[in-house]
User: Fold these one by one.
Assistant:
Number 1:
Amino acid sequence: MFSLKTSTTFLALVAAGLMAGCASGVKLDKPAPVETRNVTPADGTQGQGGAESQVANVDLGKGAAGAASNMPRTVYFDFDSFVVKEEFRGTIEAHAKLLNADRKKKEVIEGHTDERGGSEYNLALGQKRAEAVAKSLTLLGVSDQQVEAVSYGKERPATDGHDEAAWAKNRRAELKDR
Amino acid sequence: MNQTARSGSVTAMINRRSLLGAAALGATCPSWAQFRIEISGVGATQVPVAIAKFRDEDKSGQAISAIVRADLERSGAFRGIDATPVMDETSQPQMNEWRSRGADALLAGSVSRLADGRFDVRYRMWDVVKGSDLGGQSLAVVAADLRLAAHRIADAMYEKLTGEKGVFSTRIAYVTRSAGRRFALRITDADGEGGQVALQSPEPIISPSWSPDGKSVAYVSFETGKAVVWVQDVASGQRKAVANFRGSNSAPAWSPDGSTLAVTLTRDGQSQLYVMGRDGSNVKRLTTSIGIDTEPVFTRDGKAIYFVSDRGGSPQIYRLPAAGGNAERVSFTGAYNISPDLSPDGQTLAFITRNGGGAFKLMTMDIASGKVQSLTDSTDDESPSFAPNGKLIIYATRAQGRDVLMTTTLDGKIKTRLLSSGADVREPTWGPYGR
């Protein structure tokens, strides 16, 4: 898509430049025509919705490091919930794939809560979220030794707000390389 | 510190004379403006005490008399009244005059510099009603201990007049979070001043807990990327990770004899209670429940542990034998009760409840009757901790968009906000007698 757009723009500019060189009443304020097209991926995953299409794009064969850096690393949770929601299945599967491909690779899963409530009880709740993600990984074949579930409770919010929008961003588990 | 005590008759003044109503209380005196004392409720019965400015206290660099007065007022048992002119421990106060000024008791003293650079802080107390001398002391201290001397004088005054031990010379520990997310474990006087930093970290610190001898603090630090329980010697700064197992390690609580720590570990799955030696040896699992078990606190006799568990579906306070065994539920009011602390006499439980409106409130429960009482009007209360004499509770809450520390009397009537010097302050824990 980038190259297509660039080449179109380039041609338009070249054309405009050539015409301007003629100095014959060209309207410069007329925008150069730029064509925008949606690119259809070759594997045809487009249109299946949100997070799942991101997963299909992870290609371990083209260098794990590059793929890992773009990999989603956060799983969000509902209030008072420890259930890994369906929309994050792709994230979990991507990490499982990575860990299963390299048994020496390890991840730490950090559970977090929103700011409401006591620090110690929240620490325990965050631990439950981390354990839920760790369990999802081991069910996909990842070894117990590759993942450690830990918790920060409410101590490391992703965002500092005091409303539901902020709380929703803070109820999470982060998957981090070790 | 050298102490030369001179005897005086112990006089319990409370409930004896004109226990004036709260109506007589003026606003906070400007000269003590650094201490914010909030008095709520009516019918508070505070003994009026006159605390004269100590002779030459200005030269010492510490406002000794102001510190004493603020201590006594914060206790809820006293109110300071104006006491000019300057007098000292050698004065012969005219009792009639002090009576007419409404004082039940009088304190005066002096500060002088000794040849070795220390300060000699002398004081004398009088029972104005009886017209008797209540005794005094000479405290020779280094400059860094001048505040301590003032707190010891407040303790002496408190004990003389109430018959109970004061807590003004004890210490508290708490955690501050400053801009840039720097965390510090601070140890200060019981009035929140004279703070010293015991630990600084870019990572969070939570759950400080004093050893019963007041020499060590256990806490949870995230400095290694996860929750690990450390024990640190306060005087030397020497520290050791005592619980660093797979998963999270948290909620340290000391047994009354200081030999054992109860902690929450997740090494075998969910958060459960364990006990171990104070050096981390002999780890033994204490609970095996289907839920979260955390926030242990020993009873004074060391025989039982109160803790929080959501085994019944919501977090509630339970109690079990310290040697292990069946847990019984203690809290029944409300769907969210956490952070228990026990009064030194074992009769009162302080805890935090989440009410129907989503507010987190400091509560107390009379353990024998199960009767609960709300102590605050605030909505974000956390981390209650009893003073060693059981007369005050320190807790964290939010005020004007900041995390602050407050103390309250057990009837909720006298509250003091402790100094916070611009940082967010959390996780207070009150140290034992002695330091």
Number 2:
Amino acid sequence: MPGRDRQSPLDWLFYATVALATGLFAWTINVVFLQAPVEKTMGIVQKIFYFHVPSAYCMYVGATDCFVGSAAYLIRPTPARDALARAGGELAVVFGAIVLTSGPLWAAKAWGVYWTWDPRLTTSLLSVLIYVAYLVLRAFGGDGEGERKFAAALGILGAANLPIIHYSVQKWSGQHPTVITSKGGGLHHPAMHLALGLSFTAFTLFAIAILWARVRVELARSRLLRAEEDAVDLGLDDRAEA
Amino acid sequence: MIQDTSSGAATQNPQRTPDDRSTSFQAVEGGGETRSGTALMVEAYAVIWTILLVYLVLLWRKQASINRRIDGLEAAIDRVAKKKPQ
């Protein structure tokens, strides 16, 4: 097909984002392991923090994206809005899984137990389970208009838990630390600040790149599905020929 | 008082006998320090990169599946185009 493989400026922007995220990850790893000092009471296990917190932030990004796509889809259903919601749901589960595995590994050292029913841990687990349910619904619940709208409602419902996760520490106390606060935070070394800042930037770019790639794949799948249906109707498809 | 058992101290105190060395290990009762922090950190980073890698592989496979279906569709179009009289 003529022009099919031509790269658009958006493609180059995508590649630039991926390259920048990769470079920033390399720099982050360097700063985290070679420059940032070991924490006084927790020791080296505190370095999990530099990837755990940005992962939690990316989970929020995915969940917010799912909410925006779902709400927009309910207002006016389009394949792009549905793809945005679906990609956001996947992102929330991927980064939620990272949060729920890296956190307990840190807690094993800091608290002496892998898991405790702390408000933030419990609400985070609940949120990830909601998005797992969302993806299961998308995978096995069919791809009709009704199913998509039902999934969009679940995508909106899932976002309702996000502020609860965030404010659970302030509202119900618990054991989970609150190092990053509006009053400046608890990182007292410049290299610690740099490590966290770089990690946040790298994870943000990486999340954008994944989201972008996933939306494109989903849109391509949606277009292909329509083209296959048209092909069957016109007698072009293998199934019609057989 | 903490006893210095380093080799330097042993050289300065020739009166010490092999029986002065520790002959048993005592567990800290009630402590939660059962895992190495380094091992936990390595495990955490391994898990993070594994999850991301698995997701990227799944995404790549999804894209590859779409490409295969597009190829099938194009082949069907080509077959019909060849059959069609010019």
Number 3:
Amino acid sequence: MRSPLGNAQRFAVRDGAGRVRSTRRRGRLPGTLLGAGGLAAAATALAQSRYNLQPPASAVAQEIYDLHTTMLWICTVIFVAVFGTMFYAIWKHRKSVGHVPAQFHESTTVEIAWTLVPLVILIGMAIPATRVLLQIKDTSNPDITIKATGYQWKWGYDYLSGEGQGISLLSAMSTPRDQIDRYDGTGAPQGEHYLLEVDNAITVPVGKKVRILTTAEDVIHSWWLPAFGVKQDAIPGFVRDTWFRADREGVFRGQCAELCGKEHGFMPIVVNVVSAQQYTAWVGEQLKKTSSTAAEADKVWSKPDLLARGEKVYGSVCAACHQPTGQGIPNAFPPLEGSKVVLGPSAEQVKLVLAGRKGVFTPNSQMPSQAMLSDADIAAAITYTRNAWSNKDKAAADMVQPAEVKALRQ
Amino acid sequence: MSSTSHAEDLAHGHEHDHDHDHGHAHHPRGFMRWLTTTNHKDIGTLYLSFSFTMFLVGGILALGIRAELFKPGLQLWHPEFFNQLTSMHGLIMVFGAIMPGFVGFANWLVPMQVGAPDMAFARLNNWSFWLLPPAAILLVGSFFVPGGAVAAGWTIYAPLTLQMGPGMDLAIFALHILGASSIMGSINIIVTILNMRAPGMTLMKMPLFVWTWLITAYLLIAVMPVLAGAITMTLTDRHFGTSFFNAAGGGDPVLFQHVFWFFGHPEVYIMILPGFGIISAVIPAFARKPLFGYSSMVYATASIAILSFIVWAHHMFTVGMPAAGILFFMYATVLIAVPTGVKVFNWIATMWRGSMTFETPMLFAVGFIFVFTMGGFTGLILAIAPIDFQAQDTYYVVAHFHYVLVAGSLFSMFAGVYYWLPKWTGHMYNETLGKWHFWLSMIFFNVTFFPMHFLGLAGMPRRVPDYNLQFADWNMVASIGAFGFGLSQLIFLACVLKCIKGGPKATAQVWEGAQGLEWTLPSPPPYHSFEVPPQVK
């Protein structure tokens, strides 16, 4: 769900590359003209192929960008020198133009020269690289600390310290499956942020040092935000860290960067960078929501509410494997339609969803635990499965309350 | 003395029915001949044929990948099958195509180039080869077991591998068998080179190809057992309750990465050093000029091999190593550019003021230098750790390693095949077909893989079946290139088969500038050559 950013978004100005430039203070005529031209350019920016790293949105990303540019130049110069020589030889030192072969075949001087000169060049490369690496590794004195937990296949965020402490979010891809699945040759039109949009983005204030702790619940994932120059593996059972300081407002997108199973390509990362005031407002909203999520678990839900919520949760969490039709995939993911678990006692289904399960078809493949979801989400999704497709009116208990889920958590 | 032509044996199986030289017992014909042969030439042929077959299988998997990635959206494969395609493409190409291919060259050439009659352990040689087809059946067969083939990447990281079905176990067994074959073959090569050189052939008089294989064989013996360790730990974590890679049990997922890459990095040098040896044979032949800086080339190869043991964690820059660790591996990795650069300069110095002609072997060799060096540059860029933080696990890495493995290892093998095929078969191959193969391969290779640099820098991760629209253009280009590249390899197949069957008769020398003991033998060489060692001055 989109965080309310007040009026700031309406004044957001995009430059020619489609990047959001900072806004409100500069919202006067030049900014407006820039905005108008920018909007037109943004349309073409979408069609542009990109050749280089993304435009940096942090000092570290800028350092990396510059390091890469330097490396490219050095490699280009060496490339031209070396292959200029080689192609000259190919042109001039050919039998077909009558060139007679020389017989020289060694020179210690030359060998020493072309060992030492590259060595010196490498030292020249290593010095700025070392400086930037040490900057990247310095996670001390952050303003805000957020833990990012990789799940199969979404991210969970917990604001651990600094302003916003106590906020918890689950952030899953929100691109609808009908934009993705095109096996029958048709599909819904793909949006601009196809595969790079989430239901709950995290929000951070501009200009503040944000430390990201990474970990995972199941397999190794990796938290990557190209615009900030940040990539850190999320390793189950361990906590690693990295940091960024966004130097402008905007929406920045990244993806999981370590193969983590079938939906590895479908667990994006979205970070909303906003002004300090907007951040404070957002924090207030989120803390209210976090406490209301807790309250959600205790209230009694009506069946229509459960079904509405459940259809959404099913579509974004369960359908990837069990399919929108509930049919599953033969020999891979069991069908939920007609399933003994879905039609049987509700407690068994709740426990299975919370714990995950070793593979039905293959001994070592498994359904990941969904314990990271809220009680209400789990209850709603389970209720949905018990009433969808031909399961309707067949399940023993056709409604599950969040309280039941909460009670079954261990 | 008369001898059955090896090439005729190749082409016509059981048509000839007379004794071989020396009045030895009648050799089996047909399938039994190939099954029981202890002859290094036969075994070389077997390895090369196996390698090319696996190359085609791996190539079809690649086309499956690129077909899905042609457009955004999922059109063909479910994501879990896509992951099987990418993982198996890597495993099959690395362990089924590239490695056995180079062993095929070793078998054919090392004995002849050192003046030996055969490999030191001829029966072990047969066993080394015949382990491969069962291993390949296990590996490819894993597609057909419940859950499908391994889908954790060719790098099979834990703990994702703990979630895989029985296809993972089949892959583990296949890798064990492939590793055993490599180790046995390497022992054979080392003993042959150290013990069976003709009188007068000191180590520093050996052809560079022999040197590169001597060094590669030591690398193989050092690191294949390490891979065996990693995959066995994976097996026991999966089935026998151990927790090597499971934090909850006191283990560490990153341990797998350390063990795997301690194997994995020398492995990629294993896959290129023999290629360097081939190029070091082809360039002097077609420049009609001796290899420049022979001793430097030997020392550079040895340096690359030694350095390859201390750089493994550059594949792991993002796991969360302390800065000191990252810096060490960064410095060690950039150092490898020095001996590699030395080799490139020496090849160009060999060409310099030579008298070059550009038959197909030379085209591939020059093409190799050009395109492999580009892969070397991107490797250097990736070695810079801060840049690697952006590029790790993106298409930039995919571009890099395909430049060094395809334009590197594969092109060097093409150069070698065209160079030595007339010697092996006694027929000249069709030069027009060869040239078409070269140019189409070069062009389509670059069309496929150059745009991947852009994709990676722009932010496309690897091992994904789908992508945001901003990546669509280059993906479409890459897919078109891939199909072109794949189809071009059929020209190679046609050219080789045609050459085996017949063609203009090849002389012993074949190439005006070719040097080495193998060129003193007839084309094709007798089934048993150098039974009396030559005197080397």
